[in-house]
C-alpha cells in the first residue's frame, strides 16, 4: 500500500494461511524488490556480498556476525568472499564503509595471500579486464570530501591516483569495457611491482603517549597568546570615572592607615 513500508515474510510450505503462518517477517523502507540466496545447510549471521567467478564454476559469499567476516571458497557449490579478477585466478577481499579499507588479494588455486594494502575511505572497487589491476574510488554522495580514484596492481603497489580539487566531487569511476579475450591469462606472481607513493597524508599509527611519558612538561596554556599573571596589556581599555574614584578612595584610605601606624609609639620591654 502506498505510504506503507515494504515487508518480506517467510513461510513454511505448505502453510501460508493464518496469523501464525509466517515464520519470519521483516519491514523495509524505500525498497521495491528482494533477492534471496538460499543455502540448504544455512549459515549463521547476515550475508554481505555475493559474486560469481568469470569461469562460472565458483562463486563467493562474505558472511558472518562478527568481524572479521569469514570467507571461504569451494568448487561449484561453495562460497567465497569478494570480487574475483576477470580470469578468476585472484580473489580480492576488502573492508570499506566503517572499516579501515584494508585490501587482501589471494591466489585462488594456491590458496595463498598475494598482497595486503590499504585504500582508506574508498566507496567502490572494480577489477580491470587485464586481471592485474583494480580501481578504488571515493565518490559522492557517500563521501563528499577527498574524492578521487586510484589504480592499483594486485601485488599491492599504487600505480596512479587522481584526486579532485577542493570543492569538486566525483560521482563514479569505471574501467572502459573491452572484448573478451583481449588480455591473455598470466600466472600469478607474488613479487611486488614498483609503484608510487600516495599524496594523501596517512594517519599516524603510533600509540598515543601523554606529554609526561615523553619527557615533556604536561602544563599548557588555554590560549597561546595568553599574557602572564604579572603582565599588564598595553592596549587595556580606559577606566571609567567611577572606577577611578573608587581607586582614589582606596589609595587615600591605605595612606591614612599607614600614617596612623607611623604615629603610634613603639614600646620595648626588658
From TrEMBL:
Annotated coiled-coil segments of the chain: none
Known role: Functions in the early steps of protein synthesis of a small number of specific mRNAs. Acts by directing the binding of methionyl-tRNAi to 40S ribosomal subunits. In contrast to the eIF-2 complex, it binds methionyl-tRNAi to 40S subunits in a codon-dependent manner, whereas the eIF-2 complex binds methionyl-tRNAi to 40S subunits in a GTP-dependent manner.
Pfam families registered for this protein in UniProt: eIF2A
GO MF, one annotated term: tRNA binding
Keyword Signal among record annotations: no
InterPro entries xref list: Quino_amine_DH_bsu (IPR011044), TIF2A (IPR011387), TIF_beta_prop-like (IPR013979), WD40/YVTN_repeat-like_dom_sf (IPR015943)
GO terms classed as biological process: regulation of translation
Membrane-spanning residues: none
Gene Ontology annotations for the cellular component aspect, listed alphabetically: cytosolic small ribosomal subunit
The protein's name in its UniProt record: Eukaryotic translation initiation factor 2A
Ligase in keyword set: no
Taxonomic placement: Eukaryota, Metazoa, Ecdysozoa, Arthropoda, Chelicerata
Region (Disordered): 200-270
Domain Translation initiation factor beta propellor-like: 88-171
Amino acid at each position: 500500500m502506498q505510504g506503507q513500508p515494504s515487508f518480506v515474510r517467510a513461510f513454511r510450505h505448505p502453510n501460508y494461511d493464518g496469523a501464525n503462518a509466517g515464520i519470519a517477517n521483516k519491514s523495509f523502507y524505500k525498497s521495491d524488490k528482494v533477492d534471496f540466496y538460499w543455502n540448504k545447510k544455512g549459515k549463521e549471521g547476515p550475508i554481505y556480498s555475493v559474486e560469481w567467478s568469470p569461469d562460472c564454476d565458483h562463486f563467493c559469499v562474505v558472511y558472518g556476525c562478527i568481524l572479521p567476516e569469514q570467507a571461504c571458497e569451494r568448487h561449484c557449490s561453495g562460497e567465497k568472499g569478494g570480487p574475483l579478477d576477470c580470469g578468476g585466478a585472484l580473489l580480492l577481499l576488502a573492508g570499506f564503509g566503517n572499516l579501515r579499507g584494508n585490501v587482501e588479494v589471494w591466489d585462488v588455486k594456491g590458496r595463498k595471500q598475494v598482497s595486503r594494502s590499504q585504500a582508506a575511505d574508498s566507496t567502490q572497487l572494480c577489477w580491470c579486464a587485464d586481471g592485474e589491476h583494480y580501481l578504488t574510488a571515493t565518490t559522492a554522495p557517500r563521501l563528499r570530501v577527498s574524492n578521487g580514484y586510484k589504480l592499483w596492481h594486485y601485488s599491492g603497489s599504487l600505480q596512479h591516483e587522481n584526486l579532485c580539487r577542493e570543492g569538486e566531487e566525483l560521482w563514479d569511476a569505471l574501467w572502459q569495457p573491452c572484448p573478451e579475450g583481449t588480455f591473455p591469462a598470466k600466472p600469478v606472481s607474488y613479487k611486488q611491482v614498483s609503484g608510487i607513493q600516495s599524496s594523501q597524508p596517512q594517519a599516524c599509527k603510533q600509540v598515543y603517549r601523554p606529554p609526561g611519558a615523553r619527557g615533556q612538561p604536561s602544563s599548557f596554556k588555554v590560549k597561546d597568546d595568553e599574557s602572564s599573571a604579572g603582565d599588564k596589556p598595553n592596549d587595556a581599555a580606559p577606566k571609567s570615572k567611577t572606577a577611578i574614584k573608587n581607586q582614589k578612595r582606596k589609595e587615600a584610605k591605605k595612606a591614612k592607615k599607614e600614617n596612623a601606624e607611623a604615629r603610634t609609639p613603639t614600646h620595648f620591654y626588658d
